[in-house]
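Predict the 3D structure for this chain.
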Amino acid sequence: MASVANYATLQQTPASAPRAVANPGNHPTLHNEGYPRLAFFLSQHTRYLHLRRFSALAIRLLLYRQHRLMGMEKDLLHLEDRDAQFDPDFLKNFARIDAEYNTPVIVREKTQGRLYEKLQNELREYEEALLRFNRLAGKGYDAAELRDFQVFLDRNDLLGLDAAIWGSQNDPEGHASDIYQVVDRSSPSTITLEKGNTYADKCAKREKDMRQAHEAHEAASILYHDSSNRPPTQQQQQPTATTSQHQTTPSNHQGVQGASSGCP
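Done. Predicted structure below.
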């Protein structure tokens, strides 16, 4: 009876206990400064998520696995020579290799069958590591997104070893050389990839930069509500575009208007 009373007491919620918040992942104020707040921000704006691929470490592991495989390859050639000398027909039937598993464990360790088992696992891990490295090696970082992310980081000081991975506003190029944008974004248009120097391309890029800057400040407002402390945006530095007919200077987020500007 006493145990039932104690259980009932434990189930009672004190009046002073805070109410559970529904969907805590939607409330920025629940995430403390530091990595919790950084993780929340990146969860809401995945385009800013840039991480290191640790290329040098990955290559070290690939080289190490390659070394191990070469040693196993050498061992296999040795066992094949040994077994061929014992019985010339041994290497003509894999069933003979499978039958070696019926031998005592101590002897089994020095058989082709046991070595094939090790090779199967080692080679699979090596090939998977190669494919992963190839996928990541083809990805780069988005300079514009990284600059906007640096604005957020300068307001959220990190103290760990990885604090300098993304660079800063004072040193925008000081980021790690092997960072990449984790979440794939839509690819640029074909004309931008092939040419990139036409007036329309430059205009589109300028409009994209202004739009990204605007989105970055909207994202930052999730965690910071005092807009008066925000740094100046790139919208205050808009170049003047010139065509063969006349000159037009954009002054807002709408970009350059009209056919003479060359903007779509």
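The mean pLDDT is 73.
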